[in-house]
């Protein structure tokens, strides 16, 4: 989504040549939109449309803003209205495609990106977005062709190299694919040293290839350049070159997921086969009473809100908590929650004792090595008889241990999880193995865990 709308050079020159009352207001609206002052921007776009009912830029950018605020159907209608007036506007076609993509309407998104490219074959954002949608539709040969065509047309397009690296990593079938992905990440960094996601991906790729010293060198060099950056500090520990913390630091989680918020659903759902919300809530529904809308539910680490539509029918009250403000903004736009808060999870649970019938956590506790504090807090936040459900990445075998992996996430053994749940006071524990996502083209073994605070049990 173009979150920073801008007038084209042609339109800016026309506006200067023939100033009209709405032009100044439109420029003010765009400035406010770029500054994320959405209330002011929306009011000013409305004023433009009061002055000139069919002004296409105001319709287009108000559509972008409406989608940001969770009004996606309204956004589609506004951008379609703009395209009725200026049908060969590639940015509008691209943004309409982005809305369809983010709403899961992949065929419609593909059509919009292709129309944008008909209007402007050099619209690299549309071509990159087309590659992503083709990948999500599992047309991998077509997606690879679109990725490579983008880099043929724009060899210095840093994001293009990064996206091709992700594609090769996501669908790796041979070690050569991982080697090629690492080179793509290197090239993205050469072209744009600010792309911290590419730096992180390069380190992980090198570790996966068994080049552990090179992986650590990437993180050390990054940390030397940015000594206060929590990401290389955490990733240095993830590759075994520093002591692993008991859980990922708040600033690491916040930085990673604030930066990941806009593409989180796209990468996980469309490209990594992510199914933790569906599997976890399916497991919980087998335990919960049949009465609809009767439970107070906490989505602990709600992310972009993927669990909300799956559990909403069971919830009298649905609360979401996440450490990343960017993710909470996405959850708010998706809707379904009665309240959303930005907070550290363990502390928040400790401050809300005996308030919930269900505490669920899809792929949040993978950032906790030591589970005892957070599960003890979850036990206290539940009412007697309430259920906790969460997912983890699995260590296979009989050992009692947890470990930080090269991905920056933690894995836990069955025995470790069982012990910590028992010590926290949970009963009726169930720990089932499943595969909830892919990593490097391979399924990641995970645990789907449900446990109950016994009726009448003290906190």
Automatic annotation (TrEMBL):
SMART domains: TPR. The keyword Mitochondrion does not apply. InterPro entries: Methyltransf_11, SAM-dependent_MTases_sf, TMTC_O-mannosyl-trnsfr, TPR-like_helical_dom_sf, TPR_rpt. Residues 298-388 form the Methyltransferase type domain. This is Tetratricopeptide repeat protein. Pfam families: Methyltransf_11, TPR_1, TPR_16, TPR_7. Keywords: TPR repeat. TPR repeats lie at residues 56-89, 90-123, 196-229.
């Amino acid at each position: 989504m173009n979150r920073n709308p801008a007038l084209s050079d042609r339109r800016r020159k026309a506006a200067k040549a023939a100033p009209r009352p709405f032009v100044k207001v439109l420029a003010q609206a765009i400035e406010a939109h770029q500054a994320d002052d959405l209330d002011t921007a929306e009011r000013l776009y409305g004023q433009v449309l009061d002055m000139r009912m069919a002004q296409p830029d105001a319709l287009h950018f108000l559509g972008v803003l409406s989608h940001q605020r969770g009004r996606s159907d309204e956004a589609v209608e506004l951008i379609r209205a703009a395209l009725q007036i200026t049908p060969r506007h590639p940015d509008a076609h691209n943004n309409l495609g982005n809305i369809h993509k983010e709403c899961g309407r992949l065929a419609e998104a593909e059509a919009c990106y292709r129309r944008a490219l008909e209007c402007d074959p050099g619209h690299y954002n549309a071509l990159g977005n087309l590659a992503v949608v083709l990948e999500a539709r599992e047309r991998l040969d077509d997606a690879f062709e679109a990725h490579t065509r983008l880099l043929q047309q724009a060899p210095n397009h840093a994001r293009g190299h990064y996206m091709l690296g992700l594609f090769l990593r996501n669908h790796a079938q041979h070690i050569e694919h991982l080697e090629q992905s690492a080179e793509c990440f290197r090239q993205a960094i050469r072209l744009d040293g600010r792309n911290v996601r590419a730096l992180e991906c390069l380190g992980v790729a090198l570790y996966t290839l068994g080049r552990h010293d090179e992986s650590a060198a990437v993180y050390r060099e990054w940390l030397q350049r940015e000594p206060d950056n929590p990401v290389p500090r955490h990733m240095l520990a993830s590759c075994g070159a520093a002591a692993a913390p008991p859980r990922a630091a708040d600033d690491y989680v916040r930085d990673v997921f604030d930066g990941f918020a806009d593409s989180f659903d796209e990468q996980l759902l469309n490209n990594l086969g992510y199914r933790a919300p569906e599997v976890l809530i399916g497991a919980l529904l087998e335990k919960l009473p049949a009465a609809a809308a009767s439970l107070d539910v906490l989505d602990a680490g709600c992310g972009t809100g993927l669990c909300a539509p799956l559990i909403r029918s069971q919830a009298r009250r649905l609360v979401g908590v996440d450490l990343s403000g960017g993710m909470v903004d996405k959850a708010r736009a998706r809707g379904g929650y009665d309240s959303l808060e930005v907070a550290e999870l363990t502390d928040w649970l400790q401050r809300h004792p005996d308030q919930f019938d269900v505490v669920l956590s899809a792929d949040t506790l993978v950032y906790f090595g030591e589970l005892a504090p957070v599960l003890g807090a979850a036990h206290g936040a539940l009412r007697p008889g309430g259920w906790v459900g969460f997912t983890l990445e699995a260590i296979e075998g009989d050992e009692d241990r947890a470990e930080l992996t090269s991905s920056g996430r933690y894995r836990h053994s069955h025995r470790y999880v069982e012990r910590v749940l028992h010590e926290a006071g949970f009963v009726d524990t169930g720990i089932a193995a499943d595969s909830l996502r892919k990593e490097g083209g391979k399924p990641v073994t995970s645990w789907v865990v449900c446990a109950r605070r016994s009726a009448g049990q003290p906190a």
